[in-house]
Design goal:
The chain is an alpha+beta fold and about 500 residues long. It is about 60% helix and about 10% strand. It has a four-stranded antiparallel β-sheet, covered by helices on one side.
Length: about 500
């Protein structure tokens, strides 16, 4: 019994030493981040000197503000919070993260041995012609113990590479969730300002409609009294019907915008309608763009693409390790006896140790095809990463350009509205004094309504450009989790 114990102890020590070696080797190619396939700076509206100054000023800019600070409107903040809690797309993305986390846990557990308690009994009838005693026999065997079942020693890093690939997939899935979160925040903000725009445009249209209804009433009486022509009345009625049609169209747009915001929020919302036709839609702070290299850390979709590339590298390591022998250990130790009452008596100890090594000599080219597949996926992941970086660069450039030029358009539209109001006032005075036909008044009023609507639309477009800049720069929706499961150091 003492000899068996010593042998078992030595076996255990040997197994422990082999376990320490597990995962030390890796067949994965050395990962290096691909160079940026974009320009060194963003195009800036204006001359070259202005572009250089803007790039230098924003080179060391901090990340975009947290969304609570960037979107300071309390009503908008409440809608964003509601969407982050109840939006179904975000919930689906979160569940995908949980699935990837479970897959990582499975690959992490594959590196550890499976130790199980074992117990059983066996009764066998041996016929006389097979018995050594030439008499029929019934034998019994009872056993109990602890066993190690086919533990693969990961000398070549196959299992470790699969674990690394699962870890990268998990982090990529979480980065995708952050991208969904960032996109949701931007969509809610855009839908919010779209609804405020519809409210304000509707108020302007209703104010104009009330004015034209009064003009139609006055001219109807004048025609009845013979002090105005029927032509003037039809002209006034034409403007009235135009205002009615615009109000009906804006009512439809407002309903659609409200439903869009409710869909993003994930449940019905309590909307506080705009009460003044001349109120401001809102303001957003300016954000410095920084350099394109900063997008690699800011943009969650770019991070996801790079993590997918890292997973592809790890999968190549697992495919390469398949060319080397697979070494597995199966062992058990416990007690065995021909009688149940003797199972735990002295001298009933038993053990079994069965190492095995497997090296496929011919597999029809499966390993070659699998390695070629993993390498092709790596090359595809490189192309996807380059595309993600280029798309991010384009998004920032377009958003910066839109913010710049829409700012100028909003200033022009504001000045144009002031000019149209003055024109409408002067035209009405000329008509009242008999110096201008009523058709001039109608044209001035029609252009004034168009200018009012255009200014609101341009200001809302400017807000959308600010939202686009925030989203294009990566925002700061939530920090990526770093669970303990992912921090296990590799030997």
């Amino acid at each position: 019994m003492t000899n068996i114990t010593l042998i078992s102890s030595r076996r255990c020590i040997a197994l422990a030493l082999l376990g320490l070696l597990t995962g030390c080797a890796s067949m994965a190619p050395q990962y290096s981040r691909p160079p940026l396939a974009v320009a060194a700076s963003y195009p800036v509206a204006g001359n070259a000197a202005a572009a250089t100054a803007a790039t230098n000023a924003s080179a060391a800019s901090a990340m975009p503000a947290d969304w609570q600070h960037y979107f300071s409107d309390p009503a908008l903040q409440s809608y964003i919070t509601q969407a982050l809690e109840h939006n179904r797309d975000l919930r689906t993305a979160t569940l995908r993260v949980e699935q990837a986390r479970a897959a990582l846990g499975y690959q992490q557990a594959a590196l550890a041995p499976v130790i199980a308690a074992q117990g059983g009994s066996n009764r066998t009838h041996v016929p006389a012609d097979l018995s050594l005693t030439r008499h029929p026999m019934i034998t019994s065997q009872f056993q109990a113990g602890v066993g190690l079942a086919a533990w693969e020693l990961d000398f070549w890093g196959r299992l470790a590479s699969l674990r690394d690939a699962a870890r990268a997939d998990y982090l990529a899935t979480d980065a995708a969730r952050q991208a969904v979160t960032l996109g949701l925040i931007a969509q809610v903000a855009d839908a919010y300002y779209a609804l405020r725009e519809a409210d304000q445009r509707l108020l302007l249209a209703q104010r104009t409609l009330a004015s034209r209804q009064e003009s139609f009433r006055i001219y109807s009486r004048r025609v009845a009294a013979g002090s105005a022509s029927r032509l003037n009345l039809t002209q006034v009625e034409t403007l009235l019907t135009q205002a009615q049609a615009l109000a009906a169209q804006l009512e439809q747009q407002r309903d659609a915008a409200l439903q869009a915001l409710q869909l993003l929020a994930g449940q019905p919302i309590q909307w506080q309608a705009v009460t003044s036709a001349d109120s401001a839609l809102g303001e957003l702070p300016e954000l410095a763009a920084g350099l394109p290299a900063a997008l690699l850390e800011r943009r969650p979709d770019v991070r996801a693409a790079e993590l997918q590339l890292q997973a592809a590298y790890a999968n190549i390591g697992a495919a390469r390790a398949a060319y080397f022998p697979s070494i597995s250990l199966t062992a058990s130790g416990g007690t065995a006896s021909a009688a149940l009452d003797g199972l735990f008596k002295p001298g009933s100890g038993s053990w079994n140790f069965s190492p095995s090594i497997t090296l496929p000599l011919f597999d029809g080219g499966r390993r070659d095809a699998n390695l070629a597949l993993m390498q092709a996926r790596r090359d595809s992941a490189v192309a996807s990463y380059d595309k993600a970086v280029q798309a991010a660069f384009r998004d920032v450039a377009n958003a910066l350009s839109a913010r710049h030029w829409l700012g100028q358009q909003a200033a022009i539209a504001s000045h144009a509205l002031a000019v149209q109001r003055e024109r409408a006032r002067l035209t009405q005075l000329r008509f009242d004094n008999g110096a201008a036909p009523y058709l001039d008044v109608l044209d001035a009023q029609r252009d004034l309504l168009s200018a009012e609507q255009q200014l609101v639309q341009t200001r809302r477009a400017l807000l959308s450009a600010g939202i686009a800049v925030y989203a294009a720069l990566g925002g700061a929706p939530q920090a990526a989790p770093q669970p303990e499961l992912l921090t296990t150091p590799r030997s």
